[in-house]
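Hi R.,

Here are the chain sequences for the assembly we discussed:
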Amino acid sequence: MKGSLIILAFFVAGVITGIYRFLPEHLFQNDYSLYALYLLMFLVGIGIGCNKKALTLIKEVNFKILFVPLSVITGTYIGVSLFSLLQSNLSLIDSLAVGSGFGYYSLSSVLISEISNETLGVIALLSNITREIITLLLTPVFARYFGKLAPIASGGATAMDTTLPVITKYIGSDYAIISVFSGVVLTILVPFLIEIIL
Amino acid sequence: MIIVLVLMGFGITIGWIFHSKEKFIKLTGFLTNWSIYLLLFLLGLSVGANEKIVANFDKIGLLAISLTLFAVGGSILCAWLVYHLFFKNK
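And here is the predicted structure of the full complex:
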């Protein structure tokens, strides 16, 4: 929990800095987060390489690994459909489209803005950022009460990069391969699913 | 995305070579933590700097967050089922 609070503090500090523009303007014009992500991916790779159990897991689990991204898609669509029944602001189609981001907010928001409308695009952005934040903050809770696949499911497409370090911290590096696999499959599917739905 | 995967593959190779060096593993953990902090700060930065998001946050924010809770809830329950059926005793 302490780890999550530190992470949240950094996020909040970022939001405040962003609103009041405390930092030089050029910082806002360039997307430095991409480079931070590159660094993180490299470090996560080292973490996986250091773990001798990581690669043996794939051999043991084999085809079952496919059930992980499949359960994320099924679960997301069931949850989102239920949501669309409970309120009248977002239709089933719109809800499914936003859900199809699986946390991949940059791509899903741009795609949805273009295919549908700007407002739905912003909803996709906020929703999928929230998915990432929920995963970062609640991974310890999810792992404890809903099993080792729960943080991977919550992370969706982000389970391969941004949420991977937190996920592996709480469910173990041996599950990192499954996390990356699920994240990669979902990331690839995001644009296809959004196109099909909208 | 290809760059990201290549970098990770590169990292895995380096990690594989140095996996027996205790100090190296510790340093990697430390750097990983700080790059997460940096990434979250930058994510907050782009959210805060986006006037459209800040202005509309109260209206559509609630809608987005509640939708996400259902999406995450459904995913977790499905994953919980799959975990108990196929993974737990592995």
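Chain B touches chain A through 73 residues (CB under 8 Å). The mean pLDDT of chain B is 86.

Let me know if anything looks off.

Best,
T.
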